[in-house]
Amino acid sequence: MLDKSHKFVTCQTCVGRQNSLLGHLCSDELEHLNSHRGCNYYKKHQALFLEGSFPRGVFCINQGLVKIFKRGDEGKEQIIHIAKPGEMVGFRAMFTEEPYKVGAEALEESNICFISKDDFLNMMDSNPVLRNGIIKELSKELADRADFITNMAQKSVRERLAFTMLILMDVFDNQPINLSREDLANFVGTATETLIRLLKDFKEEGIIEVQTRKIFVIDKQRLHQIAGK
To answer: Which CATH number goes with the domain that contains 44?
Structure first.
């Protein structure tokens, strides 16, 4: 439980910042950023922003996980990314000055800070390291998304599940994968019933163990083989 710990988060003490785009800010820049951002507690399933809304700034994840997703014509979600502590969410749409093409929602109780559009753009103008980092991040994301789309389009559901679980092992930092079956199915791009059947197969093959909704990966090498990685 995070309770009200967001009230005590500062940019100087934020653990997630060390591995983020803001990790190279000097002390003066950190002090300025700390005075120009707000940090809020988000409940599970609480939205950061909605698909179709206009960006007002960027979100920095201090604690918790955030799913980035798009809804299909029938309202079904397709999760395209799960952001973890240290990641910044929402700055891509801000540059295009177009509405969000995706939505973002807390997967669990989270502490998330917000930097307004004007403050963030001013930081970019005055900090070439930050500006170059964002350019690299956008370039990397383009390549990652291309790989993700290719894998999801060309692999079987079983292969996609193995591929997704390898991604989630990194998201959960090699701790048990703790997602609802619906969210996991929406990440894999399949029906919940199909996902449950495949998880049962993986369990019987000794690849995973399941405790309630937590998934423990026992044989990572086998996941790599199934995913074709």
So the answer is: 2.60.120.10
Can you list the pairs that 188-191 forms with residues at least 24 positions away whose Cβ atoms lie under 8 Å?
188/157, 188/160, 188/161, 188/164, 189/78, 189/152, 189/157, 189/160, 190/157, 190/160, 190/161
Judge whether residue 6 has pLDDT over 70.
no
- 82 lies in the same domain as 184: no
Neighbours of 117 (CB within 10 A): 17
Q: Per-residue pLDDT tens for 143-163?
A: 777 777 777 778 999 999 999
Q: What is the pTM of this model?
A: 0.86
DSSP 13: T
Domain range holding 211? 155-227
**134 and 187 share one domain:** no
Integer angstrom CA distances of residue 142 from 40, 123, 134: 29, 23, 12
Condensed to tens digits (0 to 9), the pLDDT of residues 47-102 reads: 999 999 999 999 999 999 999 999 987 778 999 999 999 898 988 888 888 899 99
Are 133 and 184 contained in the same domain?
Answer: no
Do residue 130 and residue 181 come from a single domain? no
| Among 98, 97, 106, CA closest to 2 | 106
Beta sheet of 177-178, edge-to-edge order: 177-178, 214-217, 208-211
